[in-house]
Design brief:
This protein is an alpha+beta fold and 205 residues long. It has 3 helices and 10 strands.
């Protein structure tokens, strides 16, 4: 599948969900492993991107964010370092999964809705899935680049993960513009990790 066809698919989803309130549109790097998408891109690739970003001076803003997320059913309880707590229910509308020929990395574009919900003392529930996140957010024009080091704990099993995503900021650009922008910036990230073809073949899974 060529890039134009991939972008048309993404544009279709933009038109489908663009009127939804609290819409979140993001692209996430990762790998497909036995049919499943894994957003842990490894420390090696993570550090390559972070080094590049830290030596770039075109950012509108750079922000360090530390928080812990707890998960209960479909509710995410986010606790900031200062104790601020937010409860979010996330509804996933659509995932579009893509592989890139001759690249170690793949990507997923997601359309979701995030709504604030009342805090019902979720933190006192048993066996919560936990993600401790240390994130650097780089703001650039119509997007955020989020580089996040994550420590997860699930049933006493601890794992360190390295995740990179691009989130579209709310803007007045067209669906076509946003689709092209998101794909090209995703490919820029992949190219930092490992050089890819100037006209990469993108395969929809």
């Amino acid at each position: 599948m060529n890039m134009n066809k991939s972008i048309r698919e993404i544009v279709e989803q933009f038109y489908t969900y663009k009127e939804k309130k609290n819409l979140e549109i993001e692209s996430r790097l990762g790998f497909f492993n036995i049919g499943k998408f894994d957003s842990n891109i490894t420390e090696f690739f993570f550090n390559k991107v972070k080094k590049k970003f830290d030596n770039t001076d075109t950012w509108v803003n750079v922000e360090e964010i530390s928080k812990t997320d707890y998960y209960y059913n479909k509710i995410r309880i986010s606790v900031e370092d200062d104790g601020t707590t937010e409860c979010i229910e996330k509804k996933r509308f659509k995932n579009l999964d893509y592989q890139i020929d001759d690249s170690p990395l793949d990507f997923r574009i997601s359309f979701s809705q995030e709504n604030n919900v009342p805090n019902k003392d979720y933190l006192n529930k048993d066996n919560l899935y936990t993600r401790v996140k240390n994130r650097t957010r780089y703001e650039h024009n119509n997007v955020y680049f989020d580089l996040t080091e994550v420590t997860t704990e699930n049933n006493s099993v601890v794992e360190n993960r390295y995740e990179i995503e691009i989130e579209l900021k709310e803007n007045d650009k067209s669906c076509l513009y946003n689709s092209i922008n998101l794909v090209l910036k995703t490919l820029d990230l992949v190219n930092i990790c490992e050089t890819i073809n100037k006209k990469p073949n993108i395969i929809h899974i």
